[in-house]
Amino acid sequence: MNRTIVCPMVLLALCLPATADQERKESVNLHETYRPQFHYTAAKGWINDPIGLVFYKGQYHLFNDHNPVSCRFPGGKTSGEQSHWSHAVSPDLIHWKHMPIAVFPDDNGACWSGSGIVDRSNTGGFQAGNDPALVLIYTSAGKTFGQSLVYSTDRGRTWKKYEHNPVLGQLVPFNRDPKVIWHEVTGKWVMALYLRGHDYALFTSPDLKQWQKLCDVKHPSATECPDFFELPVLDAQGKVTDGGKDNTRWIFWGGNGTYLIGRFDGKAFTPESGPHKTEWGRNCYAAQTWSDIPPQDGRRLIIGWMHGGKFPGMPFNQQMTIPRTVTLRSTEEGLRLFLYPVREIENVHAKKHTWSNLALKGGDNPLVNLNGKLWDIDAVIEPGKAQQVGFDIRGHKVIYSAKDQKLTALGSSAPLKMHRGKIELRIVVDVTSIEVFANGGQVVMSFSLPIDPTHTSLSTLATGGKANVDSLTVWQCKSVWPQ
């Protein structure tokens, strides 16, 4: 949970109360000038870190650190201003339904970041009936910082706090952000926890209530918000390697999106490479992956806090990234993570425009007749003799320099090598965001900003010579919010 980003705005009335056993109906306008139309936002108030991410019985659950009283960072001393956990559910990672607040501050302090799991073997003893309990593990941030539990026996509609919280007391001041996973080989829970500086640690438990330390983990480039997960090693095209399912590595993820690659034997994490960088834009932090994705799905899914954006005059503040699929692939530089929009983004695709084998030079603009605020753009470009190629998207440029092999967007730059003389750009555009995924997601650039609502044009760019667009697909997108 980042304690430094503060964005004061207009005070609000307390978030709408809701009965414990019913999903809250929207009673606010979700089509305001600066309301993202397919990126998640709270109905009202502030949100930051995505937390408690868990899939259960056909629904993805998304929680956030949340200030229900105002649009500013929840650092206040009163209980109303302290961090709560907001809650939303979705059948497809795109269409979200706002739910009642799940976790409230108590005598142990505010509710800071954490994670969620399905306790399928009832290790914690919380189950009632035939269905396993959902359990959220969070930081109780008070005079001291400990890790606490809250659980649900009705698919996440109501939540009850464990009576003996915290289950892991303070180790060092401000230790926080527990990410808990089930480790199949040892048959125990494993918790990654941020301590201080660049120090993290792993703990283990048989029942979510009693925790023992396994090892320390030094993450030289990161603080806060760990994640810890295993991925199969894929080839450069995203296909399973010769080692098959047994060729895996463990990822230790930090709050700023840098990560270590290594091995985990149930007792210690041994880094093999890193830290490596995923995010090259300005506005992605504290990303976390979903737990309990069904084996038949097989994906590792992640979402981040698209922090720092401004939403003038809006009753909400901050937004999430588009959910992304994470894969680990072999590259010329070694193993690296690739992040790419989930396939479910197709659920907001509307009209489709396509071009192929298109010669492109300065002054050309095949997109001249396209206007709108919501876009999903996919292009494979051969720069050829052009010095620069790219797009102008609603007044903001995404440009590739062939000479420098560098991608620049909205003032940020990232190294990007051509593959067989080509680059691939995927650009997702909402009311207040632009996300760029290059070469299948090897480079990601996330930006949150209030785009001028009167600027709705798109154009291609090419300077210094002729380029060739192998393929270009532009989808106009639609809102996920009820009309």
The name CATH uses for the topology of the largest domain is: Tachylectin-2, Chain A
The portion of residues forming beta strands comes to over 45%
Largest sheet entry:
9 strands, mixed
The helix count comes to 0
Which segments are poorly predicted (pLDDT under 50) over 5 or more consecutive residues? 1-26
CATH class categorisation of the largest domain: Mainly Beta
Summarize the topology.
Layout: E1 45-56, E2 59-67, E3 84-90, E4 97-103, E5 110-119, E6 133-141, E7 145-152, E8 160-161, E9 176-183, E10 188-196, E11 199-205, E12 212-218, E13 227-234, E14 248-253, E15 258-264, E16 269-277, E17 285-289, E18 300-306, E19 316-317, E20 319-320, E21 324-331, E22 334-341, E23 349-360, E24 375-382, E25 388-393, E26 396-401, E27 406-409, E28 412-415, E29 423-430, E30 433-438, E31 443-448, E32 458-463, E33 467-477
Parallel strand pairs: 1-19, 13-21
Antiparallel strand pairs: 1-2, 2-3, 3-4, 5-6, 6-7, 7-8, 9-10, 10-11, 11-12, 13-14, 14-15, 15-16, 17-18, 18-20, 18-21, 21-22, 23-33, 24-29, 24-33, 25-26, 25-32, 26-27, 27-28, 29-30, 30-31
